[in-house]
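This follows on from our talk about sequence and fold. Go ahead and set the record down below:
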Amino acid sequence: MLIQEYAIIAGGLITTSSLRLLAPTIKGKLGEWKVQSMLSGMKATILNDVIIADDRGLTQIDHLVLTPSGVVILETKNYSGTLYDRGRRRPWLQYIGGKKIETHNPLDQNYRHRKALENLIPGVPIVDVVVLVGSGRFKGQKPDGVVSPGELKASLRRMGCGGPVLLPIQEAWVRIEQSVRRDKQTRLTHLRGVPGGHGAIWKERIGRAGFFISAALLLAGLT
C-alpha cells in the first residue's frame, strides 16, 4: 500500500511539473483554437498554422483568411495582464502582478508575414492584424493593427468574408496552399530559428514525456 501511495504522489507531482512546462504552448493553442472556431462559424475559407519559406528562412502564420477583398493575415496572442507597446522593432512589455515580461512584438512578426506573402502573391491585397484573445489590456491607446475577436469579426464581415472571390485572388490562394509546409522536420527547423525555440522544443518534449510517466505512476498507484 505504501508503494502505491508513493506512486500516486509522484504521479501528481510530475503532472504538475509537466503542466507548468506546457502551459505557454497550451495557452497559445487555446487562443488559436478560439479564433479558428470563430472563423469556421463565419463559413470563412481559412488556413491554420501555416509555415512558408521567405528570404530569411521559414515563417509561421497562425491563420490566413480568404476574402473578396484579398488575403487577411492573423497573428493570435492569448495574453493576460497589462500590456505596453513601445513601437516597432521593440518588444512589448507585459506586467502580470509584479512581474515584467518582454515579449516579441507581434506587429513585427506580421510585418515579416506580410513581406513573405507579398513575394508569393504579388499584386494581391493583403491585410495583417494581431488578434488579442486573452484578458490582457493595453495601458493607454491600443496600437493600430491590434483587434479583439469581436472587432475582427466585424471587419471581416465588412470585407465580404464568405462571399464570392474573383479569380485572381482565388489563384493566389491556391499558390499559398501549394507553398504551405506541414511536415514535422519543417516545424522543428522553424522552431529552432526563432528566439527561445530550442528551449521551447525541449520543454514540450519533457512535458509530454512527463505526462506519460505520471499516467503510468497514477495507474500503478490506483490498481
